[in-house]
Amino acid sequence: MHMSTTIQMRTLTLLAGLAITVLSACAGPGKDSGPAMITAANIDRLVKHEWLLKNITVDSQRVIMHVDATQTLQFAPDGRVMGYGGVNRFGGTYKFSPEGVLSFPPPGLVSTRMAGPPEIMDKERLFLKGLAKCTRVIVAKEGMQMQSEDGATVLVFESIGG
Predict the structure, then answer these.
(1) Cα end-to-end distance, the chain, whole Å
(2) pTM for the model
(3) What is the CATH number of domain 2-161?
């Protein structure tokens, strides 16, 4: 019961934060003035950048970043997504609903299969696992946050180009 209560509280906190974010985005004077949840209508705010992973939590477990693992993500305007996991390149397609639900249609994200140092391969596996769980994206100036519906998986990025 305690775990259920924790998940419920986390979900309520996530929803409250999301509501504040959306409201502040609507209140801003300009199109790109504040944080906004990405939907099919405002995807241009997402595709202008290449994103560098800064921190990650997967299934409520904080992942310690590896100093030698540069992990990136880029959304193209044509519905393609690509990135670098630290050892391998990956790609796939993405779609946003009008309500802002992100999905990676089948076959999902696919990657090359090069081998690398075990500790970086582990970080890459967690990065790809976390991405696949994300259903919401919020962009604010030079930052992006992706999160799962239940809030247990959160990926935070900063813009490195665009």
Answers:
(1) 46
(2) 0.79
(3) 2.40.128.270
